[in-house]
Amino acid sequence: MKKIYMLVAVLALTITACKDDYISLLPEGSLPPANFYQTDEQLQSAAIAAYVPLRDVLWNDFFASEMHADNTHYQPSPNNRGSANVFRESGADWNNESTNDYINSIYFHSYTCISRANILIGRIPDAKKATEAGKAKAEGQAKFIRALNYYKLVRLFGGVPLHLIEVTKAEEAFLPRASVEEVYAQIIADCQDAIAKLQPPAKFPQTGEATKGSATVLLADVYVTLKRYPEAETLLNTLPAMGYKLTAEYADAFKPANKNKEESLFEAQYQTIAGNGNQPNSFPQAFLPKTANTTLITGAPSSNTVSSGGWNKPVQDLIDAYEPGDKRLDASIAVAEGTYDDSYVMTLSANKSVLNYVPAPGKVGQPYIKKYLDLPFIIAGSSSSNWPIYRYAEALLLLAEALNEQGKSPLTPLNAVRKRAGLGDITETDKEALRDIIFHERRVELAFENKRFNDLQRDPKGLAIMEAYAIKAKATYPLLSPTAFNIQAYKFLLPIPQSERGLNPDLTQNPGYSN
Q1: Between the CA of residue 7 and those of 22, 167, 497, what are the distances in Å?
Q2: Residue 287 in contact with residue 372, Cβ under 8 Å?
Q3: Closest-CA residue to 250 (of 394, 153, 97, 43)
């Protein structure tokens, strides 16, 4: 009976995938799969399809990264206790549960990326009309995508099922959890193969496809996480020769005019132009305060965020972390000023700088993320800004970390990042002190780029940092549930989704979780 239930579930998922994804990618009149993966152009189309679910991963990622750390919080919705709001708030409040749909969606969307990558990898050997260069490019991209998503999964959930082939039978769909070591071994192998098969950027701006540089920084990031610092150092030192460098100003790195330019190692692609499969970036809308009219900030008419806004709100703890004179603060955060009603909906009266902000009499200020705003919005609630997944600034900070942990001086790459921010050089030489400085630099340089929670996972002081922040959060937010911010070491891994465990009895749960 169990096998019949599993087979029905697989068939249902297959039908759903065909309805929602497959048909949309191959409309009526297109070639069937057996004849499709044949030419360079067809392989590249399949690679592009594998990138698309990254947008779905990102849409939920900030709930498990910035909001699940000490960088951002949310505006409460006391009059809207629908499941969507409750799930989002619970993730931010460390009330981790295996039934949280918003956190669980990261797991499922990551596997959608992996599934599409696996299909492409498996079809490449039979691409009779494709060139060797075309095959290499497609396989390199697919393995980068697979590695990127497994890297997200293993850090958030620990060991996970290791799917490496296209699923065509029920028994292939339900695997037990691989060990953390096995998952990392596959990530490394995929990255190494991607580096060998992909080329450096041919020119800037890039196309948005993964390149040798993308795979290089991903593998270096993995090596830093695994404390394989010499290997990370070697990889990171190859990036300047590929043409990567910092933009002149920090704010420039996020402007649509600078998409895919020299600071970009890999970005999720967005575009406000309608048609041709383009999709606008709606993150800035979600990051604005809940208000009936955002025109004062966005310049777009009829933009309402009452039901969509109020998420990923910068907290005072982060604002206070910026040093005086740090250009990144004003480039990253602004303050919406106005008044709140009883439902925590704001009527805007001014849009102000966060620098030395003091509320006007009778007004309150709401910090919001401005680094992704593309002003004025061409379409209400939408931006054409890309989402940075790896920037060259992060590569420099990874290099600083790798050097420091080997007892070498990290000051050259570290101070390059600080110089652009308008800050003076670090002269500290103590390894332990430098480790704290580098993690602090990552916090302010990479704020709102979904890096903070993973940094706290590997920072030796991560648990203590979150325990201290929890005390501040409980004193600041009066509407928190009594169980909010109960910080425990086991919660640095998220629970395996219960819906997945219901389908696959071989999936064990992470320690500390009841189901």
Answers
A1: 20, 12, 20
A2: yes
A3: 394
CB 454 within 8 A of CB 65: yes
> What are the residue ranges of CATH 1.25.40.390 in the chain?
1-179+464-515, 199-269+386-450
169 vs 10, 11, 193, CA distance in Å? 8, 9, 27
- State how far the Cα of 246 lies from the Cα of 391, in Å rounded to an integer: 9
Q: Which helix (H) or strand (E) holds 50?
A: helix 40-51
Q: Say whether domain 1-179+464-515 belongs to CATH 1.25.40.10.
A: no
pTM score of the predicted model: 0.92
Q: pLDDT for 66-118, tens place per residue?
A: 999 999 999 988 777 778 888 989 999 999 999 999 899 999 999 999 999 99
The tens digit of pLDDT for each residue in 36-65 reads 899 999 999 999 999 999 999 998 899 999
Q: Tokens for 340, please give them.
A: 């709140």
Q: Which residue has the tokens 């499922």?
A: 108
Domain 199-269+386-450 has CATH 3.30.530.20: no
Segment 267-307, tens digit of pLDDT: 999 876 544 456 778 888 899 999 999 989 988 776 789 98
Q: Where are the alpha helices (DSSP H) in 406-510?
A: 411-420, 431-445, 452-458, 462-476, 498-503
User: What whole-number distance in Å separates Cα of residue 442 and Cα of residue 452?
Assistant: 8
